[in-house]
Amino acid sequence: MIFVPTKYQLQTVATGRLFDDEGWTLDDKQCDKPSMVRPVYEKKQLEVKEGACLGLYRYADWLPIKTMLNKPSEPVTYKSEALAQRLGLNNLYITFNGWWPERNARMTTCSFKEMEAYSVCARLGDDMKDKVLVVASAGNTARAFAKVCSDNGIKLLLCVPQDNINALWFDKPLNPCVKLITTERGSDYFDAINLSNVVCELEGYLAEGGAKNIARRDGMGTTMMSATTFIGRTPDFYFQAVGSGTGAIAAWEANLRFIEDGRFGTHMARLMVSQNKPFVPMYDAWRADSRVMLPYDPDQARRDAAEICAPVLSNRKPPYSLAGGLYDALKDTHGDILAVSNAEANAAKALFEETEGIDIYHAAAVATASLQQTIEKGVVKADDVVMLNITGGGEKRFQAEHEVCYLEPNHIFRIDFTKEEVEQVLAEM
Q1: Pairwise CA distance, residues 319 & 418, whole Å
Q2: What average pLDDT score do residues 251-279 get?
Q3: Phi, psi of 274 (to 5 degrees)
Q4: Residue 367: which of 342, 395, 348, 347 has the closest Cα?
Q5: In this structure, what are the phi and psi dihedrals at residue 243, rounded to the nearest 5 degrees?
Q6: Is-contact 205 29, C-beta < 8 A?
Q7: What is d(CA 248, CA 224) in angstroms, rounded to the nearest whole number?
Q8: DSSP of 203-235, one letter per residue?
Q9: 343: burial class by Cβ within 10 Å (0-12, 13-18, 19+)?
């Protein structure tokens, strides 16, 4: 297949201004308030490409990419039977991201963060190949970017809290183009973000951009593309656990494009997102009907993050308040944020494996538990069309079938690191 780069312009959510992408645009410099920018694709109707080797690039019409990378994976959607029966649902669709060969799910990192990495790295132009891509992560995102960059020879620097590096496992040693620095034990994801921000002030390093990177959001949006094209319509409800909320924002944006497409219905899927108690800053803000995140003492946030069973959900500075962020997505879709305890998540994790036959991550279990909550409250009815985004699974199965190795940090920084220290360490790496 001959690939032609996707054609699109960017639009600022706050103002509606259309403008051209300069290659790695993350913000509209002419907008004076925080706002997402979105791609407006030339192709309004999504043509799903055929080909077993295409992975998520089957949805290239709605991905802001310049090329296709090697060994891409993709989400897989199927209609649940056993879990659906247990929950009393007639139309439960599971979008599975992970390792489950019998379902043709072949994400070797077992996480939907691969969808971010394959899209973001395919957005890199030739003029950026000499720069080092910098990614901050609480674990799964780092593993996904490491795998994709290693397989494709893309220079990458990961910034991860040291307490989370057990998530950096791989089925083979990585290309030395991938390097890892961490913040000391007791630090959290926000500390890793601070470290990455300092790195990106140095020459030769490129900030991946997080939620503001259109390729990250639209890569994650392939979960909604998978579900909607499989079902034949957009779902009534979309369930996902969130740390930043970027995946839910991506689902909302994909839903808007499907409405414009015209073949999949005119309704919005209600975004039902969940956090893991006691780390629930977005839940607290939403319950207070506040666009602005409420004050959260950093030390208390670190303690709360240390208690949750799904540490990947511990983002202290999520894209919640800005125009086009999670607050707007929830308002537009009449969505909600739910809070799930460790006990509820563990029970849901066991239930999913018992009924569907595959292990899932705690974050996906949080989403499953939140679905149970809404059914019990009568919010979700038996005949509603429900999409459950299982954002990671099959790790236990994958590791049982493969030998794994771990990525060791090139350097560990104290929380009170200085820019001069960072510059010196990187110069010696």
Answers
A1: 26
A2: 98
A3: -140, 150
A4: 348
A5: -105, -50
A6: no
A7: 9
A8: TTEEE--GGG-HHHHHHHTHHHHHHHHHHTS--
A9: exposed
Q: How high does pLDDT run on average in the chain?
A: 96
- Coil, helix or strand at residue 393: strand
Angle ∠(418,424,425) on CA atoms, nearest 5:
90
What percentage of the chain reaches a pLDDT higher than 70? Answer: 100
Over range 283-304, report the average pLDDT: 96
Structural domain boundaries of the chain?
76-107+216-399
- Tell me what the mean pLDDT of segment 403-422 comes to: 94
* Whether the Cβ atoms of residue 156 and residue 133 lie closer than 8 Å to each other: yes
pLDDT of residue 1: 59
Q: Is the pLDDT of residue 2 over 80?
A: no
Verdict on whether the full-model pTM lies above 0.90: yes
Q: Which of 120, 142, 141, 318 is nearest to 206 (CA)?
A: 120
Tokens of 262: 């015209």
Instruction: Write b or e for each residue in 223-259: b if 16 or more Cβ atoms lie within 10 A of its Cβ, otherwise e.
Output: bbbbbbbbbebbbbbbbbbbbbbbbbbbbbbbbbbbe
Look at the domain 76-107+216-399 and name its fold: Rossmann fold (3.40.50)
Nearest to 156 by CA among 128, 184, 183: 128
Tell me: pLDDT of 51 over 90.
no
- How distant is the alpha carbon of residue 390 from its chain centre? 11
3-state secondary structure 289-340: CCCCCCCCCHHHHHHHHHHCCCHHHCCCCCCCCCECCHHHHHHHHCCEEEEE
Q: Is 283 helix (H, G, I), strand (E, B) or coil?
A: helix
Indicate if the pLDDT at residue 313 is higher than 90.
yes
Task: Round to the nearest angstrom and report the end-to-end CA distance of the chain.
Answer: 39
Whole-number pLDDT of residue 52: 72
